[in-house]
Amino acid sequence: MNIVSFVMRVIDPIRATWNRRDEVGASLVEYALLLALIAMVCIASIGIFGGGVGGSLSKSGSRIVSVGG
């Protein structure tokens, strides 16, 4: 056995562990960014459409009350 194969034999398990950690960390960061993007889209859509939807629901509710009462 030469020194290169010995060093590679020692380094390979360490490298495999680091690669596994990098993948888990990267996917966690990606999920966090995706969640932040979804939250921003929801907040922006509520800000843009919130007033119009609220007005429509208010009109519908008042019509239901006037028909039912």
Biggest β-sheet description: none
Between the first and last Cα atoms, what is the distance in angstroms? 93 Å
**What do the pLDDT scores average to?**
80
Helix and strand composition category: mainly alpha
Could you write a compact summary of the structure shown?
0% of the residues are buried.
Question: What does this protein structure show overall?
Answer:
The structure is a single chain. With about 70 residues, this protein is mostly helical. About 95% of the residues lie in helices and about 0% in strands. The longest helix is centred in the middle third of the chain and has 66 residues. It is rod-shaped and about 90 Å long. The model has no long low-confidence stretch (mean pLDDT about 80).
Topology overview:
Blueprint: H1 3-68
Search tags:
mainly alpha; 1 helix; 0% strand; rod-shaped
